[in-house]
Design a protein that fits this description.
Elements lengths: L8 H9 L29 E4 L2 E3 L2 H16 L5 E7 L5 H12 L3 E7 L3 H14 L7
Parallel strand pairs: 3-4
Antiparallel strand pairs: 1-2
Helix pairs in contact: 1-3, 2-3
């Protein structure tokens, strides 16, 4: 049985154009070694990001985007502010921004995180992926 997690072409575009390896770190944190298997950003397992934080599976991001799809579609004629608190290295921030861009939203996206090193990497990831955003 094949699971089709892409219920919409816009969600598929986002998932296929964000490389999870850019948002994880390769070395496991000692406290998580028993819970997180070896580094494989493409598995369904949570991946270590550092600071005892994990990046959830692509499936969870696809499900979340599916839930956001209809509310986002209702915002196409309004200026919209989106906020990602605890953005980590920016995966969700970029995923939701890419979805908003795909839908033609007029939006501003803000990602915030407590860890300075995460924000630095999020800015680098933004620079790498901005070609997929409106106004790139």
């Amino acid at each position: 049985m094949k699971l089709n997690l892409f219920t919409d072409q816009k969600i598929e575009f986002v998932i296929r154009n964000l490389d999870k390896a850019d948002f994880c770190q390769q070395k496991s944190v000692d406290s998580f070694k028993k819970k997180i298997p070896d580094f494989n950003p493409y598995s369904l397992d949570p991946q270590d990001m550092g600071h005892n934080q994990v990046l959830t599976s692509t499936v969870m991001h696809a499900v979340t985007m599916q839930e956001l799809l209809e509310p986002f579609k209702g915002l196409t004629h309004k200026k919209t502010n989106l906020l990602d608190v605890g953005c980590g290295k920016g995966y969700s921030t970029l995923a939701y921004s890419m979805l908003a861009s795909q839908l033609g939203l007029n939006y501003t996206m803000t990602g915030l995180d407590y860890h300075h090193s995460f924000m630095e990497k999020a800015y680098l990831n933004l620079d790498q992926y901005k070609k997929h955003l409106a106004g790139g």
